[in-house]
Amino acid sequence: MAMDMDVPSQIEALLVRNALTKSIWVTFQLFFYALRPLFLNPKPPGVWEFFNLIVQLALDAAMVYFWGWKSFAYLILSTFVGGGMHPMAGHFISEHYVFNPEQETYSYYGPLNLLTWSVGYHNEHHDFPRIPGNKLYRVKEIAPEYYEDLESYKSWSQVIYMYIMDCTIGPFSRMKRKPSTTSKKTE
């Protein structure tokens, strides 16, 4: 059975319990997300992983050669900003962390959707996963009755703050569906 790599590990759940450790976790959440599979479900690297590594190292070396170490440091540090305490990184938490047990996922209807290809329209994305992100706002326009009564957010910064400060919310405050053991056939 495949493991769900979106769900934090048991170690994360044990360590991330208060405002301080949640703040650290939020700051480094992209690294936890990226490295978690290497520890929880390691696979031997294939040819494409080695090819990718070589290309990435060559591009990094070229950047340092032509533009210096500051340009490389800028990209590394911007990863922390873009995936940590930055308001736009709030979507990582807002999409699937359960603040209301009656609702599985949440949408964000704020101005940052203009900069994120409408990633905030998350309920709409779950309902219609094949609609491109830049068209998801139309789903809400066409069928507002399905989305108006759902809880949503207008601030990703507020979501980050709520996650850090609410002692009842933690790494496992997520909806995780059990895999279906039977498939239903329609006749």
TrEMBL record:
Question: What InterPro entries does this protein map onto?
Answer: FA_desaturase_dom
Specify the domain of life of the species encoding this protein. Eukaryota
The entry's keywords: Membrane, Oxidoreductase, Transmembrane, Transmembrane helix
Q: Where is the Fatty acid desaturase domain?
A: 25-149
Where, per UniProt, does this protein localize?
Membrane
A GO biological-process term: lipid metabolic process
**Membrane-spanning ranges:** 15-35, 47-66
Extract the coiled-coil ranges from the record.
Answer: none
Query: Which GO terms fall under molecular function for this chain's record?
Result: oxidoreductase activity
For this protein, the record's PANTHER family field holds: SPHINGOLIPID DELTA 4 DESATURASE/C-4 HYDROXYLASE PROTEIN DES2 (PTHR12879), SPHINGOLIPID DELTA(4)-DESATURASE DES1 (PTHR12879:SF8)
Q: What is this protein called?
A: Sphingolipid delta(4)-desaturase DES1-like
Protein source organism: Vitis vinifera
Quote the gene name from the UniProt entry.
Os02g0639600_0
